[in-house]
Specification:
Helices cover 28% and strands 29% of the residues. It is elongated. The longest helix is centred in the middle third of the chain and has 17 residues, at 144-160. The termini are far apart. The chain has a 7-stranded mixed beta sheet, with helices on both faces. It has a 5-stranded antiparallel beta sheet with strand order 13-12-11-10-14, with no helix packed on it. It has 311 residues and is an alpha+beta fold. The chain has 8 helices and 14 strands.
Length: 311
């Protein structure tokens, strides 16, 4: 590593300040080189305070870089400043022989994907990640999507204090608008059968970037911090989401998921195989299927499809 990279590595690990003389001794360079490297890190967006009493100290700043992500994440992590989709990047990394678990983080996506082939608006400022897990780590593959949505809600609440609810099956809502989109894909082992790998794509509308929200999304989406200045960094949030996903997969979580599903008791429109039907959402069963009642009294448990609230 060069002096700048070594300086960043040390400051990430130190909660208190480190004097310039100590840094120079640990890295094996001059104090002038430390000063120049600190200035270079500041130019990249890192907030570094310098004082006679505390020395050099790295303050919290929402800079995405591989060293920062590696410092926070509990699994191996890959970083892309810009990519088409973290889901696509994750598949490419798997194809190169990398083993799960690992995560892929992007500063922005140019071709972010949502459910049912929709695009996902992914400008700078949001958290865009894909988490790749081994099939062996997923006891109930058919409930992975619901588990992931609950994990994301837990992570957001733990770090921000912002209450989250879930629109079946996997959208996170805040104040009646969508704040998080989740997309899961499974890769099947063709020789042995069963789930080989799973990729969980997660997009969090953390705070606005320079790119304006498209007109058709303005009444539907919301940022966790609409005015900016998020106290939580993308690296911190992504790491906590990863921890919560791994944790929830080993739990009996359906009661908590059910309690967060805000459409229960509401009139909805069920869209399945291109056909729309009116219904009332009455429950989420133990397999995370949405139980609905149609006007003719017929009850159905939905394992797939889309629902929208009728207002």
């Amino acid at each position: 590593m060069n002096v700048k990279d070594e300086l960043l590595s040390i400051l990430l690990d130190e909660e208190t300040g480190v004097s310039g003389s100590e840094l120079a001794e640990r890295i094996g360079c001059s104090r002038m080189a430390i000063s120049k490297s600190a200035a270079g890190l500041s130019d990249e967006g890192y907030r570094i305070s310098v004082s006679k009493s505390d020395g050099y100290r790295l303050e919290k700043s929402d800079v995405l870089s591989l060293p920062v992500l590696q410092h926070h994440f509990p699994v191996p992590v890959y970083y892309r400043a810009v990519c088409q989709s973290t889901m696509t990047e994750a598949k490419d990394i798997l194809n190169k022989g990398c083993e799960a678990p690992f995560a892929v983080i992007a500063g922005r996506q140019e071709g972010g994907r949502g459910r049912l082939g929709r695009s996902f608006f992914s400008p700078e400022g949001g958290l865009y990640m894909s988490l790749v897990l081994s099939g062996e780590a997923i006891p109930a593959p058919d409930m992975l999507t619901t588990a992931a949505s609950l994990a994301v809600a837990r992570a957001i609440e733990a770090l921000t204090g912002i209450g989250c609810s879930i629109k079946w099956v996997n959208d996170i809502y805040i104040h009646g608008r969508k704040a998080v989109g989740i997309l899961t894909e499974g890769l099947v082992n063709m020789e042995e059968g069963g789930l080989d790998k799973a990729i969980i794509g997660i997009g969090v509308n953390l705070q606005p970037g320079a790119e304006s929200v498209p007109e058709e999304l303005r009444s539907k989406m919301i940022y966790l911090y609409p005015s900016g200045n998020s106290p939580v960094t993308r690296a911190e949030l992504g790491a906590r989401i990863t921890e919560e996903v791994i944790k929830v997969l080993s739990e009996d979580f359906i009661d908590e998921y059910r309690s967060r599903c805000f459409i229960l008791g509401s009139s909805i429109t069920v869209i399945k195989n291109g056909i729309q039907r009116e219904a009332v959402a009455i429950d989420v069963d133990d397999r995370a299927e949405l139980v609905v009642r149609y006007p003719d009294g017929r009850i159905e448990a939905l394992s797939s499809g889309e629902v929208t609230l009728r207002i």
